Structures
1.
Amino acid sequence: MLSRTADSLFWLSRYMERAENLARVLDVASRMSTLPTEYSGTMNEWESAVATAGCGSLFRQHREKATRESVVDFLVASPDNPNSILACIQTCRTNARAVRGAMTAEMWEVVNGAWLALQNVDFADISGPALARFLAMIMETSLRFDSVAYRTMLRTDPYWFQRLGTFVERADNSARLLDVKYHVLLPQSESVGGGLDYFQWTSLLRSVSALTSFQWVYRESVKPWLVADFLILRPEQPRSLIAVYGEITRFLERIADLYGRQGESQRLARAMLAQLQNTPIDRLFQQGLHEFLGGFINDNNRLGSAIASQYLQ
Amino acid sequence: MQPSPAAKREIMAPELLAHMSNGREIALAFDEMNGDDGATREVYAGLSDWLAATPGDQLAHRRGEAEAMFRRIGITFSVYGDEQGGERLIPFDIIPRLLAMKEWKKLEAGLEQRVRALNAFIADVYGAREIVRAGIVPEDLVLRNAAFRPEMTRIKPAAGQYVHIAGIDVVRCGEDDLYVLEDNARTPSGVSYMLENREVMFRLFPELFSKMRVRPVDDYPDKLKATLRSLAPASASKEPEIVLLTPGALNSAYYEHSFLSDKMGIELVEGRDLFVRGNVVFMRTTEGPKRVDVIYRRIDDDYLDPLAFRPDSALGVPGLMSAYEAGNVTISNAVGTGIADDKAIYSYMPEIVRFFSGEEPLLKNVPTWRCREQDALKYVLAHLGEMVVKEVNGSGGYGMLVGPHASRAELDAFAARLRHDPSAYIAQPTLSLSTVPCFLDNGIASRHVDLRPFVLCGADKVRIVPGGLTRVAMTAGSLVVNSSQGGGTKDTWVVDDDPAAPALPH
């Protein structure tokens, strides 16, 4: 397939996934901000939302304080933010339009439908129920896109590049989410935060739709190191870093099989998966959770570059 | 043949004239449903009954559904010079336009004859130039033509074919009066609307299709692919690599490019996806460079290769013309076909057809005054208010004057332009295009239409799908059907009226 087509499929999937993650971050921040202030830890919810979205410094250039209004405005549709939810959907559609033939009609209709729906949203006045509806719509769109791609695409290279985009982005977003909250996940913080941090932990799980499944896996109440274990090292949790890298490795293997050639990206992905498989959670805490996650985000970016130079240029 | 002013009375016969008043004009135009005398023509009988029996609100509802379908599928086009830079829907009319099989057969034969003549003409113009030596087409009209490509005198395209895809615009002025209005021999567009219109009609009105035997058009992409494949260079393998070259997603016809490449299962490439090495064209793929044999290009000659033509073109592929000259790639349509698409050359088409086929042309030309000739210019200036004046090299309905609809000031301004550069224009009588019923906001009304059938010319044979794109001037009385000027489209049905047609096995 054309490199440019693969590139567009990879990136449009990343942007769709990114839009969903931003929506999840805002959804959880909205929920947390309704709790009494003493539950909210050292950082206010809106600051951590901006940090998770990976646009902290850009935000501080354009806004003075992280409040509900300023953060919602900035992350949803601000022209100052090239990675707002609105901008993500727009970029996704621009890429989709450039490679319509490489997607199925159903995928295009999901992307185009979302874009058309956004034309009718009044972003000047988005709060309360309108915000909740908007966020639900974005998450719904991403879920539909994902399932439509899964159910309608031929299992050839366009599909594997589409999947790779989704999962490389998901790995990045999951790691950032954990990194912003890493301090409440450290084992010793249990005594510091006590019961109050419970809401921080559960909100983390909720933001990746993993609160209920946590109970099924651990059968005990939410403990911070268990949350970290669940979201990093548990292969049965589909958003855990290890599960996402299992998928990434598999997709890259399929491409290598198809083309009859291995390369840098296969090697990198396998190395990252092996590292996750060979590190027990307590060693990970000894090394430092924050350091680990920072290293992971960098490695994930390196993988993105390796995929680009091997296939997309 | 250049009509002499003396012949004007004949040419300006009432059935060829559009009239100033919209109401009168429609009354005088040939209506394809009701004929000249108001009696429903045979081919429309079933449709006419159905229209009478279907309540207006039901039609309105279906039209709403059609629009939602087009928007959801994203069948849009962008308009140059549109400030909003937006993507617009082309207005779609839900009442099909019908052609009887016997009418179509006649048209089809005429189209094939015409496109064969176009190809023979272009081959001659870049070769022996016998038609010039025979004194039929003036030499300067060929050699000084902006669309003439001297490179093509050295390059012989595969199978000696130049125009592989032609869109011949045909208008109807009476029961048996078909005229060719334009030959689009560069990169004609609109075929995706023909196909999508049919698809939408199938979904909206299955009951109508069960009443009539409509000839299918949906094998057009197959036929196009077969045509392109037949034209692959000798160096290509049995499975030639065919690509569609688009200027990109901002182009007004981008939807069509992606639609066609998808239906044919070929890559949709931009200039930057291709490169030339050792006079061979390659595309950049995820598996490395891959050789390309046939390029169905939807960009103009000028932009194809910055080394050969416009150096500022970012849309093309440097070195493409060298690969073409080396015979390593087929460019479709061939470079330089614009010479046959020229409106001044158009006026010689009847002679061109006679010269190369030895037959009488089956399709008529609209009488045309070439303003480069002094007598003609004088006549045109004196009758500007009755004529349609077009730029010789224009397309898309831009830079065109419709005399009867122009104000005094517009006429004067145009007259000045004509005097300044007469050879850039041709003039034709304002034809009274036929009308067909359309479903508009106020109910059913007549609107003027034309027809663009698509003719495919391969190394092996000519292929034509039965139908084409019917363009509708949506404004009452308007004669401009171009989508860039607010025209709409409707589905065109070639209806099998042969009672001996075999019934389905049961």
Note: Residues 1-27, 80-85 of chain B have pLDDT under 50 and may be disordered.
2.
Amino acid sequence: MIKKIFFILLTLILLTACYRKIKIPLPHYESELFIVGLVEPDSVAQISLSRTIPLSERSTDYTVNDARVILYEDESAVDTLKQNLSTPYLYTGTYPVNDHSEYKLRVSHNHLNAEGVARIPSAPDVEIKSVSQEEVITEENITNAVKIKIIIHDPPQTENYYAMRVMKKGGPEESQLYWIYTSLNDPAVMNEGIRFSDYIVFSDIIFDGKDYTMTLYFDLPGELLPGEYLEFKICALERHAYLWMRYQPNSSGLEGPFAGETSQIPDNIKDGLGVFAAKNAVILPYHFSN
Amino acid sequence: MKKIIFLLLLLTAGWAFAQKVRITGTVYDKETKEKLIGAQVYETLTGKGTITNDFGYFSLIVPKKDNFQLIISYLGYKTKMLLLPPRGQYQLKIELEPGEQLNEVVISLDKQPQIERNIEVSKISLDAKQVAEIPVIMSEPDLIKAVQKLPGVEPGVEGFGGMYVRGGSIDQNLILLDDVPLYYINHLGGFLSVFNTDAINKVTLYKAGFPAKYGERLSSVLDIRMRDGNKKEFHGSFMAGVLSWKFNLEGPIIKDKTSFIISLRRFPYDLLLRTAGKLSSQMRTEGGYTFYDINMKLNHQLNENDQLYLSWYFGDDALSFSEREKDYKFRSRLGWGNHLISLKWARLWGHRWFMNTTGSYTRYRFGVTIKEKEIDSRMKLNFFSGIIDYRLKTDLESNVSEKVKLKTGAGYTYYIFKPGVAKYTTEGRENNQITDTVLGQVIFNSANWHTYVSALFKISEKFETEIGLRGNLYTTRQSIFPSLEPRINLKYMTGENSSVKLSYMEVQQNVHLLTSGNIGTPVDMWMPATDLVPPGKSRQIAGGYYHTFLHGEYDMSVEAYYKTMNNLIAYKPGTSFMTFAFEDWEYVVEKNGTGRSYGAELLLRKKKGKFRGWLAYAWAKSTRQFHQINNGKPYPFKFDRRHSLDITGSYHFKPGKVLSISWAFGSGYPITLPVGTVEYANVYEETEPGNGFFIVFDHIVKEKNNYRMRAYHRLDVSMRFTKKKKRGERTWILGVYNVYNRQNPMFYQLEYTENGMEVYQFSLFPFLPSISYSYRF
């Protein structure tokens, strides 16, 4: 019997000791130009330009110095972006971008060339229906919230993408109001929405082509002071701007046996990698009457 | 359409009015009186044949003759010939004796129903003997491991009991134990399935062309039938293996009328560890893992036409840990398991209609209990999630004429989904303060009505077709999802022993599985389809060439298929079951995904002789597409495998000595690996004026599942020694898993090392010898 137990335990030990780890050749990959660019009416173009480094390389120098970065408006060169030495990887233009135009970005550096195209979307057609203050029970506590109802007049037969931000302004300090993510919120946003930086980013997948009244709750710590008001910034996004903003909070998961879904870098750059896209915003202030 | 229906009715009527004789009966094992599923019944003078159904019952309508010669055969049993005197109708009880068939008889059986004569496409059956002879890890026969060796079934991650059929996900398999679904089928994380092979009679896998009585899942049906138990004598067995110890007892309660079978299985080492813990006074902590299964079945023959079956399955896994000190106690238990009970009534109505009515309850539950006790306080936390089904269904079948066989039925299923309820209680003694908190008490209910009808038409000697329609009415919250699922099978005999077949089917799946990662785990949650996450749908067309040759010793099938899947779901990037409240589950999944699979499969089997086995090869391609994953582009399914080959065989070189060999090869599964790294200024993220932008470091993940793991291959060998003893029969099984110690990939991981970033493959199962002992009495 003792021999049997010994044999059984030995087998168990064998099983636990059988974990093996071997090195695998890295996938082959060539360095590329990496562009993160955004154009917005009445602003100058700003792009981040760096280079990707294959996993097999030990270098950590991502910088691309003295690249030729030219912005074209409807096929005509309108701006040459210069390297901004105060911020790594940043190239900045001087030409304010126009509404309803198509912009092309051409980048060349040594033997590498890359190109991206952005089309300024129409500004979103939105109106504020109501704004009120309420107490909301979240998973953690009871909080003072701003309940906002906005009407989005979504254009028919197109996929449209939106980003929305609420700021408290007019007082001694400007601050952003955080979106409360619970099932209280609007299904259209809950379904597709994601928080990126100051913005809620969502698509029209639920209300495509309709006049849609959206209800959202934002956290409002404390009371509004006299003179303070809320400012709604609602942007129409190009698809790749939307994809980029969705990608950002969930980038680069690595796989293991229990790993979840990984995110892939949105890419609309020809012969390179990254995103060059546009947005167009409307700003709506809201003053509480009392 | 009306013309076609009229024509069919006319044909049916015509056939029905001709002078015919109905031969019905049930086929039993002579020694145990258990019914034989899938036994072949062939009338030689008219050339008509059929097979017994899941209750051992058959029905044949043949043209009237002076007498009939019936041949009844079943693999592993001696073939029986019966000469029937002239009569208008026959109801037979046929007993077959276990044993090998003599060759001279085999020759006369060329025309009996074989793979090419069945109407079904992509249907493969295995019996318990075949399952037992396949060498597997730790010498423990396992049903799911055997099914994984069939073409078109991918095992997924090594060692885990995955089952991915023709590019379908793990939740797309309907796994039925005596007609009742099981929702989680793994013990030990997948080393073993919950099916105790001692209690199993037969298993049938459908990968396409589902008969209309099956639905509910998009990719496959695995229909497992438990044994009924010996009606003549008491018998039993026990087995001590590396992974489990088993005990099985069966016998008559009323001879030839009522029998029972009970099978127990347990993972025994927690008992050893606990005993060791108690022997050591120093040990204040105790922990362990165990699982157990109890299968029980009672069956009672009420009279010639009525039979009752009561099936019960109870299985659990438990992981526990406890700690005890002078003023402190801590206990935790994590458990999961299935509980299933069904009552079945099988009845033959007037020698024409065979009916099976089943009422059942099945539940899967995952739970965690934590208890902590200190001098002045107590804490208790309970968390559980699960799914419960209540079902009632009736199936009817009849040979309405010589050339038409009709099957119909209806049923109702009521689902209760409990995605997660946590109860938290604290009690402080000093101030007598008690708090009770219940979190996430969310229950979703839904229901499904179904009905179906299918008819098998023998258009000519060569051509048969089975046309079926299944209707579902699925209700959830305020939404109703009706569906009509056509099922069509066609068969054309191209020769005496060869045929071509074609099938088309549509299926709707009303439940979704929220699964994290690459493997099925007990914490995966079943959720109902809703208006926001509608039911999944699939369409599949499949066809092939089927041939039996060398006097029935070999058969082969070559099949091709094309399948589309709609309304698939996946967790949104960065989300898992830990990151959301259950009320919001519909919002954390990517919806409206599509899938596409196509491929070709070859199965070559040697069914008789000293060497038996099969060769299974599959070429397949399977993709998924979601609007928000992989930039909206299609990507390979995570268990997309281009080539798989399984060679499995056993050689009976002496009575009682069987050598089994199995070799598996599979090209690499896809995984997502970054190809490089980058830093950039994120111009999309606004900061305070003048502060610039955030600098972000990122991995470059260009496409999902962009890389393939190394190919997988493995050789397993086992040797079985069986010897008759005074009071029974003992068997030793010696086995070796992964004979040549191939380091197969389980998962890949990126690691930062002194040399920069490197990719490592992790393997778990090297060369593993094992032994098991069993005794039958």
Note: Chain B touches chain A through 81 residues (CB under 8 Å).
